[in-house]
Amino acid sequence: MGSTVSTQVQKRKALSTEKKVLCDLNQSCGCDFPSSDYRPPDRKAWMAGLGPEKLHVNKIVWPGTHDSATNKIGIPFVSRPFAQCQSLSIYRQLVLGTRVLDIRVQEDRKVCHGILVTYSVDVVIRDIKKFLSETEKEIVILEIRTEFGHPDPLDFDKYLVDQLGEFLIHQDDHVFGKTIEELLPRRIICIWKPRKSPHLKAGDPLWSAGYLKDNWIDTDLPSTKFDSNIKHLCDQPPVSSRKYFYRVENTVTPKADNPVLCVKPVTGRIHEYARLFISQCFAKGCADRLQVLSTDFIDEDFVDACVGLTHARIEGKA
Fold first, then answer.
1. Going from the N-terminus, what domains does the chain have, and what CATH number goes with each?
2. CA proximity to 190, closest of 263, 129, 251
3. Which residues contact 115 (CB under 8 A, 6 or more apart)?
4. Residues 102, 65 contacting (CB under 8 angstroms)
5. Using one digit for the tens of pLDDT, what is the confidence trace for 121-172?
6. Cα separation of 41 and 253, whole Å?
7. Cβ distance 60 to 310 under 8 Å?
8. Alpha-carbon span 268 to 307, nearest angstrom
9. Contacts with 203 (C-beta within 8 Å, 6 or more apart), sequence order
10. Cα–Cα distance between 70 and 83 in angstroms, integer?
Protein backbone atom coordinates (compact mmCIF):
# COMPACT_ATOMS: atom_id res chain seq x y z
CA MET A 1 0.00 0.00 0.00
CA GLY A 2 2.78 2.39 1.01
CA SER A 3 4.72 1.78 -2.21
CA THR A 4 1.58 2.42 -4.29
CA VAL A 5 1.00 5.76 -2.56
CA SER A 6 4.66 6.69 -2.99
CA THR A 7 4.51 5.87 -6.70
CA GLN A 8 1.42 8.01 -7.18
CA VAL A 9 3.05 10.91 -5.33
CA GLN A 10 6.07 10.69 -7.61
CA LYS A 11 3.86 10.61 -10.69
CA ARG A 12 1.95 13.67 -9.57
CA LYS A 13 5.24 15.49 -9.01
CA ALA A 14 6.45 14.47 -12.48
CA LEU A 15 3.22 15.70 -14.05
CA SER A 16 3.41 19.02 -12.19
CA THR A 17 7.00 19.49 -13.33
CA GLU A 18 6.20 18.71 -16.95
CA LYS A 19 3.23 21.04 -17.06
CA LYS A 20 5.44 23.81 -15.70
CA VAL A 21 8.11 23.10 -18.34
CA LEU A 22 5.64 23.74 -21.18
CA CYS A 23 4.10 26.73 -19.45
CA ASP A 24 7.53 28.33 -18.91
CA LEU A 25 8.59 27.57 -22.48
CA ASN A 26 5.43 29.19 -23.78
CA GLN A 27 6.04 32.30 -21.68
CA SER A 28 9.72 32.62 -22.56
CA CYS A 29 9.63 31.72 -26.26
CA GLY A 30 6.09 32.57 -27.29
CA CYS A 31 4.13 30.92 -30.04
CA ASP A 32 4.70 33.19 -33.02
CA PHE A 33 5.67 31.77 -36.41
CA PRO A 34 5.31 32.99 -40.02
CA SER A 35 1.63 33.87 -40.70
CA SER A 36 0.66 32.85 -37.16
CA ASP A 37 -1.85 35.70 -37.22
CA TYR A 38 -3.55 34.42 -40.39
CA ARG A 39 -7.22 33.46 -40.06
CA PRO A 40 -8.96 31.77 -43.01
CA PRO A 41 -12.11 33.69 -43.99
CA ASP A 42 -13.96 30.37 -44.48
CA ARG A 43 -12.62 27.33 -42.63
CA LYS A 44 -15.04 25.08 -44.50
CA ALA A 45 -13.25 25.95 -47.75
CA TRP A 46 -9.81 27.05 -46.60
CA MET A 47 -7.97 25.19 -49.37
CA ALA A 48 -10.06 26.97 -51.98
CA GLY A 49 -9.33 30.23 -50.18
CA LEU A 50 -5.56 29.74 -50.38
CA GLY A 51 -5.66 29.02 -54.12
CA PRO A 52 -5.75 25.39 -55.29
CA GLU A 53 -3.62 26.25 -58.33
CA LYS A 54 -0.64 27.17 -56.09
CA LEU A 55 -1.28 24.88 -53.12
CA HIS A 56 1.00 21.85 -53.46
CA VAL A 57 0.15 18.72 -51.48
CA ASN A 58 3.57 18.64 -49.83
CA LYS A 59 3.32 22.27 -48.70
CA ILE A 60 0.11 21.79 -46.77
CA VAL A 61 0.13 21.55 -42.98
CA TRP A 62 -2.84 19.24 -42.64
CA PRO A 63 -5.01 19.70 -39.52
CA GLY A 64 -6.09 16.26 -38.34
CA THR A 65 -8.07 14.62 -35.58
CA HIS A 66 -7.04 11.69 -33.41
CA ASP A 67 -9.66 8.92 -33.03
CA SER A 68 -11.91 11.04 -35.21
CA ALA A 69 -15.23 9.17 -34.98
CA THR A 70 -15.59 8.92 -31.20
CA ASN A 71 -18.09 11.71 -30.60
CA LYS A 72 -20.82 9.20 -29.67
CA ILE A 73 -18.74 6.27 -28.48
CA GLY A 74 -19.76 4.20 -25.47
CA ILE A 75 -22.44 5.18 -22.96
CA PRO A 76 -22.87 8.90 -22.13
CA PHE A 77 -21.50 9.83 -18.66
CA VAL A 78 -20.52 6.19 -18.06
CA SER A 79 -17.95 4.80 -20.52
CA ARG A 80 -17.82 7.66 -23.04
CA PRO A 81 -15.41 9.90 -21.06
CA PHE A 82 -12.82 7.11 -21.14
CA ALA A 83 -12.73 6.84 -24.94
CA GLN A 84 -14.15 10.02 -26.47
CA CYS A 85 -11.44 12.02 -28.26
CA GLN A 86 -13.71 14.29 -30.35
CA SER A 87 -16.98 16.00 -29.48
CA LEU A 88 -17.90 16.91 -33.08
CA SER A 89 -19.29 14.66 -35.80
CA ILE A 90 -17.10 13.90 -38.81
CA TYR A 91 -19.11 16.38 -40.87
CA ARG A 92 -18.70 19.17 -38.27
CA GLN A 93 -14.96 18.47 -38.05
CA LEU A 94 -14.60 18.84 -41.81
CA VAL A 95 -16.62 22.05 -41.80
CA LEU A 96 -14.35 23.36 -39.03
CA GLY A 97 -11.32 22.71 -41.25
CA THR A 98 -10.11 19.20 -40.38
CA ARG A 99 -8.55 17.50 -43.39
CA VAL A 100 -7.08 14.27 -41.95
CA LEU A 101 -9.38 11.70 -40.34
CA ASP A 102 -8.28 8.77 -38.17
CA ILE A 103 -10.93 6.03 -38.22
CA ARG A 104 -10.64 2.65 -36.44
CA VAL A 105 -13.00 -0.20 -37.29
CA GLN A 106 -13.71 -3.71 -36.07
CA GLU A 107 -14.82 -6.78 -38.01
CA ASP A 108 -18.51 -5.74 -38.24
CA ARG A 109 -17.55 -2.35 -39.79
CA LYS A 110 -18.44 -0.44 -36.65
CA VAL A 111 -16.11 2.28 -35.47
CA CYS A 112 -14.37 1.49 -32.20
CA HIS A 113 -11.75 2.72 -29.76
CA GLY A 114 -10.34 -0.25 -27.93
CA ILE A 115 -13.26 -2.29 -26.60
CA LEU A 116 -15.82 0.51 -26.91
CA VAL A 117 -18.00 0.75 -30.01
CA THR A 118 -19.98 3.48 -31.75
CA TYR A 119 -21.81 3.86 -35.06
CA SER A 120 -21.16 2.08 -38.34
CA VAL A 121 -18.45 3.35 -40.69
CA ASP A 122 -21.37 4.12 -43.04
CA VAL A 123 -21.98 7.22 -40.91
CA VAL A 124 -18.42 8.38 -41.51
CA ILE A 125 -18.72 7.84 -45.26
CA ARG A 126 -22.05 9.66 -45.36
CA ASP A 127 -20.61 12.67 -43.50
CA ILE A 128 -17.61 12.85 -45.82
CA LYS A 129 -19.82 12.72 -48.90
CA LYS A 130 -22.06 15.43 -47.50
CA PHE A 131 -19.06 17.69 -46.95
CA LEU A 132 -17.67 17.02 -50.43
CA SER A 133 -21.06 17.80 -51.98
CA GLU A 134 -21.01 21.22 -50.30
CA THR A 135 -17.45 22.15 -51.30
CA GLU A 136 -15.52 22.04 -54.55
CA LYS A 137 -11.79 22.16 -53.92
CA GLU A 138 -11.10 20.60 -50.51
CA ILE A 139 -8.96 17.43 -50.31
CA VAL A 140 -9.37 14.97 -47.42
CA ILE A 141 -6.94 12.32 -46.20
CA LEU A 142 -8.99 9.43 -44.85
CA GLU A 143 -7.02 6.92 -42.81
CA ILE A 144 -8.99 3.78 -41.92
CA ARG A 145 -7.39 1.03 -39.89
CA THR A 146 -8.49 -2.19 -38.24
CA GLU A 147 -8.38 -1.61 -34.49
CA PHE A 148 -5.73 -3.56 -32.61
CA GLY A 149 -6.93 -6.99 -31.51
CA HIS A 150 -9.69 -7.23 -34.15
CA PRO A 151 -9.79 -9.16 -37.44
CA ASP A 152 -10.22 -7.16 -40.63
CA PRO A 153 -13.75 -6.48 -41.87
CA LEU A 154 -14.60 -8.82 -44.74
CA ASP A 155 -13.99 -7.31 -48.22
CA PHE A 156 -13.52 -3.88 -46.67
CA ASP A 157 -11.23 -2.62 -49.43
CA LYS A 158 -13.98 -3.39 -51.96
CA TYR A 159 -16.49 -1.58 -49.74
CA LEU A 160 -14.32 1.55 -49.63
CA VAL A 161 -13.85 1.60 -53.39
CA ASP A 162 -17.57 1.01 -54.00
CA GLN A 163 -18.50 3.85 -51.65
CA LEU A 164 -15.83 6.41 -52.56
CA GLY A 165 -14.63 5.40 -56.02
CA GLU A 166 -15.53 8.60 -57.83
CA PHE A 167 -13.64 10.70 -55.25
CA LEU A 168 -10.53 8.56 -54.77
CA ILE A 169 -7.10 9.90 -55.70
CA HIS A 170 -5.20 6.78 -56.71
CA GLN A 171 -1.91 5.77 -55.10
CA ASP A 172 0.86 7.63 -56.87
CA ASP A 173 4.13 9.09 -55.54
CA HIS A 174 3.75 12.00 -57.95
CA VAL A 175 0.75 13.26 -55.96
CA PHE A 176 3.04 14.84 -53.35
CA GLY A 177 4.43 17.32 -55.88
CA LYS A 178 1.08 18.19 -57.44
CA THR A 179 -1.24 21.06 -56.66
CA ILE A 180 -4.76 20.63 -55.38
CA GLU A 181 -5.99 21.93 -58.74
CA GLU A 182 -4.16 19.14 -60.56
CA LEU A 183 -5.85 16.46 -58.41
CA LEU A 184 -9.40 17.69 -58.89
CA PRO A 185 -12.13 16.55 -59.34
CA ARG A 186 -10.88 13.65 -57.17
CA ARG A 187 -10.93 14.62 -53.51
CA ILE A 188 -9.92 11.77 -51.16
CA ILE A 189 -6.60 10.11 -50.40
CA CYS A 190 -7.79 6.94 -48.64
CA ILE A 191 -5.12 5.06 -46.69
CA TRP A 192 -6.30 1.58 -45.70
CA LYS A 193 -4.42 -0.10 -42.85
CA PRO A 194 -5.69 -3.65 -42.31
CA ARG A 195 -4.08 -6.16 -39.96
CA LYS A 196 -3.37 -8.42 -42.93
CA SER A 197 -1.94 -6.10 -45.57
CA PRO A 198 -3.41 -6.32 -49.06
CA HIS A 199 -1.17 -6.08 -52.09
CA LEU A 200 -1.52 -2.42 -53.07
CA LYS A 201 0.55 -0.91 -55.82
CA ALA A 202 0.90 2.30 -57.79
CA GLY A 203 -2.35 3.12 -59.52
CA ASP A 204 -4.57 1.34 -56.99
CA PRO A 205 -7.51 3.40 -55.69
CA LEU A 206 -6.46 2.88 -52.05
CA TRP A 207 -3.10 3.79 -50.54
CA SER A 208 -0.85 1.43 -48.58
CA ALA A 209 -0.30 1.80 -44.83
CA GLY A 210 3.25 3.11 -45.27
CA TYR A 211 2.03 6.33 -46.82
CA LEU A 212 0.99 7.73 -43.44
CA LYS A 213 3.63 7.34 -40.73
CA ASP A 214 4.01 8.54 -37.16
CA ASN A 215 5.92 7.77 -33.98
CA TRP A 216 3.31 7.24 -31.30
CA ILE A 217 4.57 7.68 -27.74
CA ASP A 218 2.08 6.29 -25.24
CA THR A 219 2.37 8.69 -22.31
CA ASP A 220 0.27 11.01 -20.21
CA LEU A 221 3.19 13.39 -19.57
CA PRO A 222 2.92 16.50 -21.78
CA SER A 223 6.54 17.64 -21.95
CA THR A 224 7.72 14.08 -22.61
CA LYS A 225 5.31 13.86 -25.56
CA PHE A 226 6.16 17.36 -26.79
CA ASP A 227 9.91 16.65 -26.80
CA SER A 228 9.42 13.24 -28.41
CA ASN A 229 7.34 14.80 -31.18
CA ILE A 230 10.13 17.30 -31.90
CA LYS A 231 12.83 14.62 -31.84
CA HIS A 232 11.05 12.27 -34.23
CA LEU A 233 10.06 15.11 -36.54
CA CYS A 234 13.72 16.18 -36.76
CA ASP A 235 14.54 12.65 -37.93
CA GLN A 236 12.27 12.96 -40.97
CA PRO A 237 13.35 14.24 -44.38
CA PRO A 238 11.90 17.61 -45.48
CA VAL A 239 8.42 17.52 -47.00
CA SER A 240 9.86 18.60 -50.35
CA SER A 241 11.60 15.24 -50.76
CA ARG A 242 9.26 12.94 -48.83
CA LYS A 243 6.98 10.45 -50.57
CA TYR A 244 4.75 9.77 -47.55
CA PHE A 245 2.75 11.77 -45.05
CA TYR A 246 4.21 12.13 -41.56
CA ARG A 247 1.89 12.84 -38.63
CA VAL A 248 2.63 14.51 -35.32
CA GLU A 249 -0.08 14.04 -32.70
CA ASN A 250 -0.47 16.86 -30.20
CA THR A 251 -2.05 14.49 -27.68
CA VAL A 252 -1.33 12.64 -24.49
CA THR A 253 -3.36 9.66 -23.34
CA PRO A 254 -4.60 8.31 -20.00
CA LYS A 255 -2.53 5.60 -18.35
CA ALA A 256 -4.05 2.78 -16.35
CA ASP A 257 -1.65 3.30 -13.42
CA ASN A 258 -2.76 6.89 -12.89
CA PRO A 259 -5.96 8.02 -11.14
CA VAL A 260 -7.15 10.30 -13.98
CA LEU A 261 -8.48 8.07 -16.76
CA CYS A 262 -10.88 10.34 -18.65
CA VAL A 263 -9.49 11.52 -21.98
CA LYS A 264 -10.36 15.21 -21.90
CA PRO A 265 -8.56 16.33 -18.72
CA VAL A 266 -5.51 14.27 -19.65
CA THR A 267 -5.16 15.41 -23.26
CA GLY A 268 -5.86 18.94 -22.06
CA ARG A 269 -2.37 18.95 -20.58
CA ILE A 270 -0.90 19.44 -24.07
CA HIS A 271 -3.88 20.64 -26.11
CA GLU A 272 -3.15 24.37 -25.81
CA TYR A 273 0.45 24.04 -26.96
CA ALA A 274 -0.03 23.36 -30.67
CA ARG A 275 1.11 26.85 -31.62
CA LEU A 276 4.08 26.55 -29.27
CA PHE A 277 4.98 23.30 -31.02
CA ILE A 278 4.97 24.97 -34.42
CA SER A 279 7.11 27.86 -33.15
CA GLN A 280 9.55 25.37 -31.60
CA CYS A 281 9.78 23.57 -34.95
CA PHE A 282 11.24 26.79 -36.33
CA ALA A 283 13.53 27.19 -33.33
CA LYS A 284 14.79 23.61 -33.72
CA GLY A 285 15.17 23.83 -37.50
CA CYS A 286 12.55 21.21 -38.40
CA ALA A 287 9.64 23.38 -39.58
CA ASP A 288 10.24 22.17 -43.14
CA ARG A 289 9.35 18.65 -41.96
CA LEU A 290 5.98 19.42 -40.40
CA GLN A 291 3.09 18.05 -42.44
CA VAL A 292 0.17 16.43 -40.57
CA LEU A 293 -0.63 17.81 -37.12
CA SER A 294 -3.40 16.05 -35.22
CA THR A 295 -5.21 16.69 -31.96
CA ASP A 296 -8.00 15.54 -29.69
CA PHE A 297 -11.07 17.81 -29.44
CA ILE A 298 -10.10 19.95 -32.42
CA ASP A 299 -11.00 23.63 -32.32
CA GLU A 300 -10.82 26.70 -34.53
CA ASP A 301 -7.47 27.92 -33.22
CA PHE A 302 -5.79 24.60 -34.01
CA VAL A 303 -7.09 24.73 -37.58
CA ASP A 304 -6.02 28.36 -37.94
CA ALA A 305 -2.48 27.54 -36.79
CA CYS A 306 -2.13 24.84 -39.46
CA VAL A 307 -3.69 26.96 -42.19
CA GLY A 308 -1.54 29.93 -41.16
CA LEU A 309 1.69 27.99 -41.65
CA THR A 310 0.37 26.62 -44.94
CA HIS A 311 -0.31 30.20 -46.04
CA ALA A 312 3.24 31.17 -45.09
CA ARG A 313 4.67 28.34 -47.17
CA ILE A 314 2.82 29.18 -50.36
CA GLU A 315 3.68 32.85 -49.90
CA GLY A 316 7.37 31.98 -49.52
CA LYS A 317 7.55 33.11 -45.90
CA ALA A 318 8.41 29.69 -44.44
1. 13-314 (3.20.20.190)
2. 129
3. none
4. yes
5. 999 999 999 999 999 999 999 999 999 999 999 999 999 999 999 999 999 9
6. 33
7. yes
8. 22
9. 170, 171, 172
10. 7
